[in-house]
Amino acid sequence: MVLFCLVASHRTVDLNTVARLSTGALGVAEDAVSRGALTGAVTLSTCNRLELYGELPDRGDCDVTLAQQRLAERVAERAGLDERFVLETMDAYQGAEVPRHLFTVVSGLESAVVGEREITGQVRRALTQARQSGTASPHLVQLFEAAARTAREVGAQTGLGERGRSIVSVALDLADDITPGRWPQRHALVFGTGAYAGATMAALRDRGCADIEVYSGSGRAQQFTDQRGGSPVTDAGLHAALRRADVIIGCSGGSAPMPASAFPGGPRTVVDLALARDFDPAVADLPGVELITLESVRVAAPEETRESVVAAREIVDRAARGFEAAQNARSMDQAIVALRKHTMAVLDAELEKVRAHHGCTGAEEQIELAMRRMVKSLLHTPTVRARQLAAEGRADEYITGLEALYGLEVAPQQDTAADQDPSAERFPSDTPRSRAAG
């Protein structure tokens, strides 16, 4: 198993760059899997980050750093960005760094609003999409399901995120401070019908806002409001809805931002939560208009308590070590099976020679029993040593030794995880720069 990931997030680049990279990444992972360059891939794209997880074929000629470089170059090409800029921008993780990073992300420790819970659902949906597209390899399924378990443990055992903070909630808190009146008297207009739009609708209702309209350039507003409430807005009614709205919230990330000239006059608050902006930043220059962006949310997000963050990081560290140990143990199991099969094949061949030369004698059964006891004794020490090396994270050394001494090829572990129900939720230089996780 050779896992890696490439990451661009709000911690290292501006959100416009994240949006462009996310656009460039569309279909890149699936293409790499279909060409055989990767065994599996999962793409995580949110308003704050793009993360590409990949698994390389378990072959000696696979260079993980080169694979990361080629994937980043492909994203750069499709995004229309300079390749060297992208290579220097995206953080690269390999091996044990990968689960540690994903577990940190899915627990909300890397979010603009530390401890927010939305990221857990986004990671789950990323795995579901990869399973549906056929790119989720068994090892990546194991990784993401372990991430979901880690997020649940962090939520259950720490105070991280217990205040229910999220990007949406912080944005609406900011809007509350600068918009006249109270939520029960305000009229809201939501752009979009995706996960963020759903979270926004729920957050608005929690604050007492009942007058909510929904617009979608895709035409899905009617279906969305049938399921979640609110009133759909058509293209013909959009201008009137804009005029009625006290708070306008963008969650769609349409192909082109709405120009400032499309906004009617009058005071209102505009909240742009879309990764690719829904509204031209020039709306902030309109008389009486206040603009809240993802950057505003990041700056305004309150800090979690140090104790909660420390406790969450301890859980993440323990989970990452446990995942790595489990993977090493699985690899070592295959190595032990390969050694035993080889040894028993040699024993059976030698026993067959004895039978062919001496025929069936009364002593044959005793000879076979003695030889099998001897082989079992000879295998005891290598088996014990295998377990010790696996616990120390040195499984590769053992496997390399078997291949060198016996010419054995250790088969990759068989797993049916990728064949399970895709809807199941068990829960997150010239090369991309390498970052230590945590």
UniProtKB/TrEMBL annotation:
Active-site residues, as the UniProt record annotates them: C47
What does the record give as the reaction this protein catalyses? (S)-4-amino-5-oxopentanoate + tRNA(Glu) + NADP(+) = L-glutamyl-tRNA(Glu) + NADPH + H(+)
Identify the InterPro entries for this entry. 4pyrrol_synth_GluRdtase (IPR000343), 4pyrrol_synth_GluRdtase_dimer (IPR015896), 4pyrrol_synth_GluRdtase_N (IPR015895), GluRdtase_CS (IPR018214), GluRdtase_dimer_dom_sf (IPR036453), GluRdtase_N_sf (IPR036343), NAD(P)-bd_dom_sf (IPR036291), Shikm_DH/Glu-tRNA_Rdtase (IPR006151)
Domain Quinate/shikimate 5-dehydrogenase/glutamyl-tRNA reductase stretches: 174-297
According to the UniProt entry, its GO molecular function terms are:
glutamyl-tRNA reductase activity; NADP binding
Question: What residue spans carry the region label Disordered?
Answer: 411-438
E.C. designation(s): 1.2.1.70
Q: Which residues form the Glutamyl-tRNA reductase N-terminal domain?
A: 8-158
Q: Which domain of life is it from?
A: Bacteria
Q: Name a biological process GO annotation.
A: protoporphyrinogen IX biosynthetic process from glutamate
* Site note Important for activity, residues: H101
> Which segments constitute the Tetrapyrrole biosynthesis glutamyl-tRNA reductase dimerisation domain?
311-408
Q: Detail which positions bind NADP(+).
A: G192, T193, G194, A195, Y196, A197
Residues that, per the record, bind substrate: T46, C47, N48, R49, S111, E116, R117, E118, Q122
Q: Which UniProt keywords apply?
A: NADP, Oxidoreductase, Porphyrin biosynthesis
Q: In which pathway does it act?
A: Porphyrin-containing compound metabolism; protoporphyrin-IX biosynthesis; 5-aminolevulinate from L-glutamyl-tRNA(Glu): step 1/2
Q: How does it assemble?
A: Homodimer.
Q: What is known of its domains?
A: Possesses an unusual extended V-shaped dimeric structure with each monomer consisting of three distinct domains arranged along a curved 'spinal' alpha-helix. The N-terminal catalytic domain specifically recognizes the glutamate moiety of the substrate. The second domain is the NADPH-binding domain, and the third C-terminal domain is responsible for dimerization.
Q: Family per UniProt?
A: Belongs to the glutamyl-tRNA reductase family.
What role does this protein play? Catalyzes the NADPH-dependent reduction of glutamyl-tRNA(Glu) to glutamate 1-semialdehyde (GSA).
Q: What else is known?
A: During catalysis, the active site Cys acts as a nucleophile attacking the alpha-carbonyl group of tRNA-bound glutamate with the formation of a thioester intermediate between enzyme and glutamate, and the concomitant release of tRNA(Glu). The thioester intermediate is finally reduced by direct hydride transfer from NADPH, to form the product GSA.
Name of the protein this chain belongs to: Glutamyl-tRNA reductase
The organism encoding this protein is Kocuria tytonis
